[in-house]
Structures are given as C-alpha cells and as structure tokens.
Amino acid sequence: MHNNSSPKSTKIAVVIVAAGRGSRAGAGLPKQYRDLNGQVVLARTLACFAGYARVVVAIHPDDKELFEQACLGIGDDIQYVEGGATRTASVKAALEAHRPYAPDIVLIHDGARPFLQTQTIDHVLSGLQDYQAVVPALPIVDAVKSLDGSPVNRDGLRRVQTPQGFHFTKIMQAYDNIDDDADLADDIEVARQAGLTIGFCKGDSGNIKLTWEEDFMKTIPMINITGSGYDVHQICPGKSLFLCGVEIQAGFALKGHSDADVGLHALTDALLGTIAAGDIGDHFPPSDPKWKGANSTVFLEHAVKLIVSKGGIIDHVDVTLICEQPKIKPHRTDMRSCIAKTLRIPLDRVSVKATTTEGLGPMGRGEGIAAQATASVRVPL
What we know:
- The chain is built from 12 helices and 19 strands.
- The chain has about 375 residues and is α/β, with parallel strands linked by helices.
- The protein folds into 2 domains: about 10-220, Spore Coat Polysaccharide Biosynthesis Protein SpsA, Chain A, CATH 3.90.550; about 220-380, CATH 3.30.1330.50.
- The strands form 5 sheets. Strands 1, 4, 5, 6, 7, 10, 11 and 12 form an 8-stranded mixed sheet that branches.
C-alpha cells in the first residue's frame, strides 16, 4: 500500500469511474481505452493505485472485453461493476460493491486521469483526518468573466480534481439518500448536499483529465526527430517536368518510373527517415508497373499516413532543388502550397529553395536535377 499519513490499519477502497463514452474526445474507442504512448489510458490510471487491495471500476456494459484487455498484467484482483446512465449512478454502483468490504475510506477517481501522482493521494488521505470529504484543487490563474463580460472574483473559486476522498460510511449514506435519477457533477457535490464537512488539499497541474482529442497529443512525451533525403533524376527529352508537385513547361523532362518528381522523392525519403521506415523504393518499387507515371504526391501522402499512425506530428520541412534550369523562384509559392496541403501543415512550415553547382558536375552540365530535403517530426517517446 502507498505510504501515507493514514494509520496502517485503515482500510482504503478505490472507485475508478470509467463508464463514459468520451464523445468530446472525437471518433474512435472511448477515451479510457485509447492508446497513450503504448499503453491503454485506463491501464495507466489503474497503475496509479497499485498496492491498494480493493479496487472497483465502473464500466460501460459494452466494454467488458476492452476492460479485461486493459487489466492484463496489472492484477487479477481488480473488480468491475456495470455503470449506470450517469456518473452519479456509476459511482453508486461501485460503492455498493465495496459495501460488504466495509472500508474506512474510499477514493473516487476519474478513469481518464492517468497522470495521478502518489503525493496527491497522500494529500487527500491526510486531509481526511480532519474532514469527512476532501478534494484536491488548484487556484484559477486566468481572469474570469461572466457571459455578459462582467468580472467574477476568482479568489473564491477553485478547479477541482480527483481522487476525491471520503469516509466510506458517510459518502455511502449520502448516496443512499439521493434520488435514483440524480446527475451531479462530482462526488463532492453529493457530499455537500448531505452536509458533510469538506476540505480542500493541494492539487497537481499535471493531473489532467483527458477530455478533447488534442489532449492526447499534448500529454504524450514527444521527441524531435530530423530525417534527411536525397534524390537525383536524369534530364531527358520532353516538354514538361514535375517539381515539388508543380508541373513546369521547361522544354525537357525528367527520366523516372513515376512522374520523376525529384523534390517530392527526396522529401518522402526524409519523412520516412524520421520513423525509420526505409526509403521510397521499399514502399513503391520501380519494378512494380502499378507506379509507372504515378503522381508523386501519392508517395508523400503515404509517408504522412505512416507518421500519423505512429502518433507523429510533422513540424517543418525544407527542400533544396539543385539545378541550372528551370528557374525555381517563379514556381516556389505553388510548390510550397502543394507540399503544405499534402502534409496538412501551415505554409510557413514549408521551405523550398534552389541552388546551382556553378556549372560543375552533372547538375552543372544540365544532365540532371537533384534535390535534398530535411523533415522535422515529433514522435512519441
């Protein structure tokens, strides 16, 4: 059991509320069963209470299989009950499951708060020596306004978190006395209506509740990775060529199995490099007739999908075209726009440049066009 200020003989039970659908977090699995840097959210939350002998999770009736998968490797002593139509009903069902155990204290925690620290639990348990109910809370630092623009005094306001702690018999009695269809914001509200003494303890700014889809990306530890790519294609007879997704009437073409877009090929390799996914030839072999004459934005889109599937975020790309002809500057804005649209990033995070070799080498003699590219991507640790 956690080290805390409660007597060692104190029987502590835990309720995890995980029966919601999490619709605000976007499409997909309920948020408590989504992957968070290689581990299910609920599994992370349950791990915060490792060592507690009595844990009951309120789950949705449709989520039994997901719950069992989340519990793998954590412990066989975690129990579940089917939650109700409201948070209040779900908590009551879990408390009922604890009633035969007759704990002294119960901690009620949101399943979508996977970053709980031991010290917050300790603060709650310590506060329960003086109060019948304790809630971790944080001050409000932003200015607060009503909807008509009037100022609201924030000194008397707090942002409350979980776990919320209670003397079990007191909160159980409070739940016994509320209406079956009650739908209250949290358990402290149940305690307040029952007249229990309520104390506030120090909260933790890191103990966030995953609510919106972007919360998952913001809370995952990320590392910045830079990938590089290089490609070259031979000039051949023709009327036009593609560079960075833009067709240019240059009076010549580039030789290649696809559309020979040397800029996008180099950029695709740079992106694949950030996730160690090989090179463009591994994914689109030139021996495969399927890719003959293919638009190279298809290759770039594929690299984007691979990065996104690994939870990656593309921050910036830079392409340098090395050639004597054609002149790149007149087409640079269109090139950047094409890349930005394909990568789904802002235009100011896409750089396209050009240089020459001062007449030296194959590029200087007009035998080919080369491109080098770098890509900066954030990926989960």
